[in-house]
Amino acid sequence: MISIIIIWALIVLFILQPGVAHDGAEAGAQLFVHALLPYLLPYIILTQWLLKIPSPRKSTRSWKRYMKAYILGSFGGFPVGAVTVSEMLKNGELTRRESGFLLAACHAPGPMFILGFVGTELLGEVSAGWKLLASIHIANLLFFLFTLLLLKKEQKTDETKHNHMDNKTTNSPFLDSVKASSSVIMLVATTVIFFSSLGNVLTSVISTIFTVDLGITKTILLAIFEMTSGVQSATDHFFTNPVFPFIIAAIISLNGLSIHMQVFVISKSVNLPITPYVMSRAFSVVAVPTILYFLL
Question: Where does the chain cross the membrane (predicted)?
Fold first, then answer.
């Protein structure tokens, strides 16, 4: 009942403020095309292609499988980690429990996005992008080590027992990778545009009802709903503030509902546990800005 009320309330808001909703959707579409698509699509296709090539012999060594998941998943951008772990679960390379923890550990923005868009365009220097990227991966690796400790018992008792889901193979792994990548890209585009529009509408409503700072309100709401729009808003309103780099780090670590929705949809398709992922997000929001503070 509550869900229905919220949905109808949002429908009414969108009808009453079509211009604001349009501006938010347009901004989200532009950010997707300019900041996400060029950095995300090539890596997703290559990662999917690699995962769909039939392997004559799957490694029984846990650490090799975990490192494969981390390297492929953590350097491709959101939500490549979820795609990689889900695909490895389908291929029988990971158990469901392993996949749940690796979903949390193998979750990071792409290097091209951080160095190119955030570092060069937002922070104004590539070196700042490198330090932010290092902070994100240091936090991820700490959680990854925590993951390995939790999975230690399973390595001893269930090292060769893996779930093998029905994952049909064909003679065209490249074409399969393009097909799979297109659905992921559509999911990313849909969530980015929708949550950008929703953030804009709610910002307008709150600013009208309450006496609040528009810049702060817009940045907070967009950070909650859509990460890329959030960092762009933070740049527009806090660029000269000394804490600006740490605001950017916190927003990227928070991810926003848009990215969480992408991960939830992908993980739901193979029934992955979500609790470790939620724990890792809470850890990263605190850890990444803290590590960046020491690096800067």
Answer: 31-51, 71-89, 101-120, 132-151, 180-198, 205-225, 245-266, 278-295
- CA separation, residue 89 to residues 17, 31, 36, 97, 220 (Å): 44, 32, 26, 10, 36
Range of the domain at 174: 23-295
Q: What is the C-alpha to C-alpha distance for residues 220 and 218, in angstroms, rounded to an integer?
A: 6
Render pLDDT for 135-153 as a digit per residue (tens, 0 to 9): 999 999 999 888 888 777 5
Q: Is residue 16 part of a domain?
A: no
The pTM (predicted TM-score) of the whole model is 0.82
The whole-angstrom separation of Cα 171 and Cα 30 is 37
**CB proximity list for 5: less than 8 A, separation 6 or greater:** none
Which of 12-26, 54-68, 223-237 has the least mean pLDDT?
54-68
Structurally, how many domains does the chain consist of?
Answer: 1
Per the domain annotation, does 14 fall within a domain? no
Whether 6 is covered by a domain: the verdict is no
CB neighbourhood size of 271 (10 A)? 13
